[in-house]
Amino acid sequence: MHDPSLKLIGRAAELGRLAAAVGDVAAGRFRAVSITGSPGIGKTRLLAELGRHAGERGFTVMTGRATEFERCFPFAVYVEALTPWSQPDPGDAEARAALEALVSISRGDRESEARIDRYRLYRGISRLLETAPGSIALLLDDLHWADQPSLELTEYLLRKPPRGGLLVAVAHRPAPLPIGVVAALPQADDQAIFLDLQPLEEKDLAEFFPGAAPHRRRLLHRASAGNPLYLNALADASEPVLAGLTGGEYPAGGPRALQALLLAELNVLPGELRQVAQALAVAGDQASLDLVAWIAETGEEDAADALDRLCAHGAVIPTDAFFAFRHPLLRAAVYREAGMGWRTRAHERAAAYLDAHRGPVTLLAHHVQRSARQGDERAADILHDAAAGLLDFAPATASRLLRTALRVLPAREDLTSRRMDMLLALARAVASLGELAESREILEEVLLGPDPTSVEAAGFASVLSRLMGDLDAAKHLLTRALSRSSQAAAILAELAAIDSLRLDSAEAWRYGLAALDQAGELDDQVLVAAAHSLLALNAAQQARAGDAHTHAEQAARLVDSATDSELRPHAGLLAPLALVEAQLNLRDRAARHLAKGLELVGYQGLNHGFPFLRIVEVVLLTREGRLCAAVAAAEEAAELAAFPNSQELTVTLRAAALPALLWLHGPQTALAAADELIAHGLPRSAWWSELTRLNLATVNFHAGRVDACLAQLTAGPWSPMTAVGAGIYRQALHAISAARFNDLHSALLLSDLGLADAKGAGLDHQLGAAHEARAEVLLQYGELEEALPHASAAAAYFADAKAPIDEGRARQLLATLHSRNGDATAMREELARAKARYTECSAAWLERQLARTELRMAATLTRRTQEPAGLSSREQQIAELAGSGLTNREIAQRLYLSPKTVEAHLARIFVKLDVRSRVELARRLAEGTSLEHSP
Ligand SMILES: Nc1ncnc2c1ncn2[C@@H]1O[C@H](COP(=O)(O)OP(=O)(O)OP(=O)(O)O)[C@@H](O)[C@H]1O
Ligand SMILES: [Mg+2]
């Protein structure tokens, strides 16, 4: 046989490009390499060359590869690549946790503490590559066979490459194409190298077979079609055989023809050796001697002897304590040749052996998966067990195992509850993979099953519906479950939550009270807390601060005395609680409860509390002026929401971050983000939809698109609720934009209503917003004296609510008012305060905008000192028009005001100038006296 360790033939161009990439990576950059080509064409070989070259330049080289028959080993490619490299200990905690999780999965630990959820694993691996010293080459081979989790992780790393010098090289056949990975490869030419390997040329064969005559080389080239693996196999073939193959069986004959050829090599071996070879093919790579012996049904000594001989023959290569075939194609050929029946029994033997010896659970599940028969209860249990440990970690693998488990589980009455558990687990796995609708369908059967699984299923179905924004469906599901269940408290609480999201306050209140009642009877304190926190939210939504306070107190007391494990199943309750507490200015408490909720929920996008907690996090961070943190939190959460594929949540989160983006980067950036967001459609849940639309309107307003802002605000539906929903803020923005639009009547009316509502609700932040709006409107119409107290009230309320950005904006407004009044000292004072707030929050755009305002104000101030005091610019305008003989109606038309407004202005002008009629006013004007206030 030809020696495959011989030097590399041809491929000069490819090597040149790879060397360049290695150079770039050595300089601290990220590069991706994709190697494709037909079986045996030399992908692995080229990857090895790349690894060797990188190694020579001092890189840490990590190689992992997928195998054909083991697709249910989660992260197998990364286990192989990264676990040998666990020294030295990565300093980074996230990296360490990820590595430990991989080690635990590779050992197939049954119940491991190390197991973490997917997102954290991805991030940890990314950190591992980022924090490792020096440059790294991560070589991933045979990705066409890779398990789903390995593929997903590769996609993640390619889409968000860790910083620092890293080379990720992937190799795969054209089919089956790892589509996600291919799509994730960087498109920029300088970032990625794409190598599609072609057959070797005839001239290359001179190097391959230096001793062969030209005629023989030509025959070899024709027979092999330039495929190096084929060339290797044919190296010793006689000329008549070669001539017979010249029809070009390969690649036309495909891998099968190649496999037949490879088998010819083994066919000369005695039967017992082939039996061991087949056992090895079943056992898979890294097979241990005892397992191979057991599968082959020989003693260990005989097996060892046979393996030695296979090694000597060159078909098998020993690595550490394990054995593997020389080439995956050879293994595939042997595996297939063993025949379906023998293979199935061989897997069955492997499973029995591993089961009895408590072998690694994933390995056990793999053999069970390949041998389980219909009605095999034990097999179903094994698969279920293995899947349960993988749900958060590798849902794709878990769903594969569960589907087999459900298929083989006997259809017996007494196994119903086990079947329901499996279905529930399957629904979770499927949802994690982003198939929300399919997941809900799977739940249908569970919902009709017995308690308590059906209650759990109802809760989970509700989570799915929330993520899909389909609250009506959630409500329907829950009310149906309610009618059948004996465990009503949890369902009632969930119904209250759903109705809060639907902004149906009456129903939410009713369910909240019922939940409180039931939970009290059950003496379930955490559920009681959940009910109180929902009631608090509801009271706040209905602008009843007193009730909100009472319920929030009760909830907080219970939550603070509960343990983490008690709280965990209801971690979602902490979101409404934190939100209400923030509204009540109980800031530290709000922060503590939010942090606890986030900690308990972790990175599980499918956790019940996840959406609400994450949205509240973004809203509160923005309010506190931690703008970068708000944007980052929204981004991270949106990334997580992409796992279960929840458009609803992604859009809401990004919308929640719009104000922070605005204050940081200005309206252009925010507008671009808003446009991108609208392209996905608005959220369907009433509350999230209102939040999103309000923020879109805010961005439009600041981008100077007042008409678009007004259109957004007037297009319904908006709920009548005020306090926690968008209500008061919407009214405020509406009033200000109406004023900008010269619709004084609406502006005054809206700001007045808003103020009354806010006073009724009694919550500081909203009072701030309502006063601010009132001041803005009055300023627009030149009512400086009246505007001033509102603006300072706004600033004070915002300061109390610890909302620095809002306070800064109110102070900026105050400064404007002072400048109009000619009070330069007060103006400067407020400007300085506003600036301090913006700087505190690094609100770059607001700072720039403030600097511009400052210049404008200085100019106004100079002009102002030369102008008559007393009349606002609007009043001055009206006075002049009235003096020139226009009627109120004519003035109104000209200034786009209502006649009533003009009348009101004139009345004030008369008082200020101490004139009693238009005639007198005209005379004062004609006399040429300035419109100065009479002494
Ligand atoms: N350019 C080359 N020069 C010398 N030997 C080569 C060359 N390319 C490949 N080989 C040898 O040919 C055999 C098949 O190559 P390799 O395993 O790299 O193919 P592959 O494309 O990875 O196939 P598969 O799709 O089955 O993984 C190996 O023994 C390898 O060493
Ligand atoms: Mg290969």
From TrEMBL:
InterPro entries: AAA_16, P-loop_NTPase, Sig_transdc_resp-reg_C-effctor, TPR-like_helical_dom_sf, Tscrpt_reg_LuxR_C, WH-like_DNA-bd_sf. The keyword ATP-binding applies. SMART domains: HTH_LUXR. Keywords: ATP-binding, Nucleotide-binding. GO terms for cellular component: cytoplasm. Residues 864-929 form the HTH luxR-type domain. CDD domains: LuxR_C_like. This is Regulatory protein, luxR family. It comes from Nonomuraea pusilla.
